[in-house]
Amino acid sequence: MAGEGNFIWYELMTTDTAAAATFYGAVVGWTSDKAGNTTAGGMDYTLFKIPGFEMGTAGMMALTPEMRAGGAQPAWIGYVFVKDVDAKTQEVKARGGAVHMGPTDIPGIGRFSVIADPHGAILYLFKPNMPDGPMPEMPKPGLSGTVGWNELYAGNLDEAFDFYSGLFGWTKSMAVPMGDMGVYQVFANEGRDLGGMMRKFDQMPVPFWNYYITVDAIDAAVERVKAHGGSITNGPHPVPGDAWIVQGMDPQGAMFALTAGKR
Fold first, then answer.
1. How many whole angstroms separate alpha carbon 20 and alpha carbon 176?
2. What class does CATH assign to 147-260?
């Protein structure tokens, strides 16, 4: 398993799991597999899988009426691996972040907590229960259907980087000047670039994390998004590393992003 501070899971919270499974299956190529009542609250959970791999690459669950009444909206959420969920959750508070849900066990799966950085962007901390015996083969980063980039639209870039670097040990990699938009700061862990951070746009109501799913080619994926009820909100754009990106909204209102090595 990758070391502490790496993103190890992604989860879609949505209002219509069947429709979302159809959308992402068409756009990304995922298959979906009902995993049963495997959440802390015993709610049904769906695994998104890449054909040919037993292990899921992401998950999905429905927003409950109680969640929606509390203001929860469809969204993707990232899980970061930590060695001690309880200790790291306490550290979040000490560093000025917030704890939305304290350390909680998911029987047979692992232990997690829901935290936010000092400006409100939400992440999950997670330590899985490792099964006995050999692990099934995992899809390699960069394969179509994997999440290839983690991006923070920060309330304050310098303060956000200090928070996450202190919490997870992330280090600065390439910094890309973007004129009036400030700097796009790439961050790394264990010598590998994980994503980037930038100051959020003024029209964005709150800071948040966004995740880029790798697809075969951007233009073809854009057409699949449109054909299946989604919308493109930004792009396509070329980015450093000979890649293309788009950002969009799925039919239930969750923001997502796609990346590919060719247009």
1. 34
2. alpha beta
Judged by DSSP in three states, 118 sits in coil
**Coil, helix or strand for 235?**
strand
Answer with the residue of higher pLDDT: 2 or 93.
Answer: 93
Give me the count of residues in the chain: 263
Asked whether 140 and 55 are in contact (CB, 8 A), the reply is: no
- pTM summary value: 0.91
| Closest of 40, 21, 44 to residue 114, by C-alpha | 40
CB 163 within 8 A of CB 118: yes
**Which of 2.40.128.130, 3.40.50.2300, 3.10.180.10, 3.30.70.260 would CATH assign to domain 7-128?**
3.10.180.10
**Is 199 within 8 Å of 213 (Cβ atoms)?**
no
Q: CA separation (Å) from 117 to 96, 151, 206, 229, 260?
A: 7, 14, 12, 33, 29
Contact 199, 156 (CB under 8 A): yes
74 preceded by a cis bond (ω within 30 of 0): no
* pLDDT, position 134: 57
- 147-260 shares the fold of 7-128: yes
Spatial separation of the C-alpha atoms in residues 258 and 236, rounded to whole Å: 9
